[in-house]
Amino acid sequence: MKQLLVFGLGLTLFSGMAVGDDFKRERGRDNDAAKDANEGKPAPELQVTNWINTESPLKLSDLKGKVVIIDFWGVW
User: Fold this and answer.
1) In terms of pTM, does the model score above 0.70?
2) In a domain, 12, yes or no
3) CA distance linking residue 74 with residue 3, whole number of Å
4) For the chain, how are helix, strand and coil distributed in percent, rounded to 5?
5) Are residues 46 and 59 in contact, defined by beta-carbon separation less than 8 angstroms?
6) Phi/psi of residue 7, each to 5°?
7) Which of 8, 19, 58, 74: CA 20 to 30 A from 2?
8) Any domain includes 8
């Protein structure tokens, strides 16, 4: 029983170290999504016809000078 416990703990420790090493390597890579970000540039015009709390379609340019919070979410 003691041997099984030692083996299980060793296997768990080894697995954790292997996963941690992969995580470190992934973090060090350049993030392509961040390179494509438009930080500091105007937001692109949105093509949305169904806005909450309004009956007529809005353009993002109609909201110029106002704080706009866009909440993207999904269920995968």
Assistant:
1) no
2) yes
3) 47
4) 45, 0, 55
5) yes
6) -60, -45
7) 19
8) yes
